[in-house]
Structure to design on (301 residues):
C-alpha cells in the first residue's frame, strides 16, 4: 500500500505592510532568512542553493540565521516578532507550518495570522508503506486495522523505536555476512583514524557523537552529547500540562513525580535512552506562590 504526499518547503515572511510592498527601493539592505533547525540539515542545504540565486537577483547579501529548537517553533517565533518590512524571511517545512499547529493546542505563533506565504521553493514526495501481509490496501483500512485512532502516549514512541532498533540490528547481522560487502574491492588500506566526531540532526535536536576505536576498528569509547536546550520549550509545555492536573491548590500530588519524569524522558533524547530506569530518576519538585514562598515539595532520592 502506498500513499504519496508532498512536503512543501515554503518561504514565509512576517505579514508585509502595504507601504513596504510599494517601496521601489526594496531591497536596500541585506535580507535575513531564518531556519528553525541546526546547520547541516536538509533545510540548510536547500537554503544554500536558494540564497545564491536570490543574491544574484536581488543584488543584496542573503544571511542565513539558524534559530533551532522545539521542532522549528523557536525560528518561527523569531520571524513573527521581526519588523514586517520584508527583510526577515523564514524557510520552513510542513512540520513548522502545518504539523506543529495540528499537534500543539497552544503555539506562540499562528501560521495563517502571523505569516504571509511568499513562494513554494521545493516539493518532496513521501510514501506510506506497510508489509504485504497487513490486511489493508487503503489509508482508511490501515487506520482501522491499527485501532481507529492514534496513540497519544509519549512513551509509546520508545516502543516503536525499540522495534526499529531490533530490525536495524537484524539487518546489520545480515550485512555482516554478505559476501558482496566483505569483498576486497570494498576495503581500503592505510593508517586508521582512531578517533572521530560526528554531528547528526535528529527530530529533537542536534546529536554530537565522539568515538574512539582500536587497531581493528572495534569501538573503545563513545561519548554522546545532546543539547537539552533544543528541547526546553517542548519539555516546559509538558510540565505545565502535568502541573494543571497534579497541583491541588497549595499541595503537590505524589503522582506528579512520575508524570514529570515521563515528560522529560519523552522529549529529551539524552534521558530517553534510560527508559529502562523508569521510576528511578532522582527528582525534586517545589511549589512556590507568587511571593516566592515555598508551599510544598515532593522528592525522590
Amino acid at each position: 500500500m502506498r500513499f504519496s504526499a508532498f512536503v512543501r518547503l515554503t518561504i514565509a515572511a512576517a505579514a508585509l505592510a502595504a507601504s513596504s510592498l510599494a517601496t521601489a527601493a526594496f531591497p536596500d539592505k541585506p535580507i535575513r532568512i531564518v531556519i528553525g533547525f541546526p546547520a547541516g540539515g536538509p533545510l540548510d542545504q536547500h537554503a544554500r542553493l536558494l540564497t545564491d540565486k536570490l543574491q544574484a537577483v536581488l543584488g543584496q547579501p542573503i544571511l542565513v540565521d539558524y534559530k533551532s529548537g522545539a521542532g522549528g517553533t523557536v525560528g518561527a517565533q523569531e520571524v513573527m516578532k521581526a519588523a514586517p518590512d520584508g527583510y526577515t524571511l523564514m524557510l520552513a517545512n510542513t512540520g513548522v507550518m502545518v504539523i506543529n499547529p495540528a499537534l500543539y493546542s497552544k503555539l506562540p505563533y499562528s501560521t495563517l495570522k502571523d505569516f504571509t506565504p511568499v513562494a513554494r521553493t521545493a516539493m518532496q514526495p513521501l510514501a506510506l508503506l506497510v508489509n504485504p501481509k497487513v490486511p489493508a490496501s487503503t489509508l482508511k483500512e490501515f487506520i482501522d486495522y491499527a485501532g481507529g485512532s492514534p496513540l497519544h502516549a509519549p512513551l509509546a514512541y520508545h516502543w516503536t523505536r525499540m522495534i526499529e532498533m531490533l530490525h536495524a540490528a537484524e539487518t546489520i547481522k545480515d550485512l555482516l555476512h554478505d559476501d558482496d560487502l566483505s569483498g576486497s574491492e570494498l576495503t581500503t588500506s592505510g593508517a586508521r583514524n582512531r578517533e572521530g566526531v560526528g554531528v547528526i540532526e535528529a527530530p529533537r535536536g542536534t546529536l554530537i557523537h565522539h568515538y574512539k576505536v582500536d587497531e581493528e576498528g572495534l569501538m573503545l569509547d563513545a561519548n554522546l552529547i545532546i543539547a537539552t536546550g533544543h528541547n526546553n520549550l517542548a519539555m516546559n509545555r509538558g510540565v505545565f500540562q502535568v502541573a494543571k492536573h497534579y497541583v491541588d491548590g497549595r499541595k503537590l500530588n505524589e503522582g506528579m513525580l512520575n508524570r514529570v519524569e515521563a515528560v522529560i524522558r519523552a522529549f529529551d533524547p539524552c534521558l530517553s535512552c534510560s527508559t529502562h530506569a523508569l521510576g528511578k530518576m532522582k527528582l525534586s519538585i517545589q511549589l512556590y506562590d507568587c511571593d516566592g514562598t515555598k508551599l510544598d515539595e515532593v522528592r525522590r532520592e
Observations:
- The longest strand covers residues 115-127.
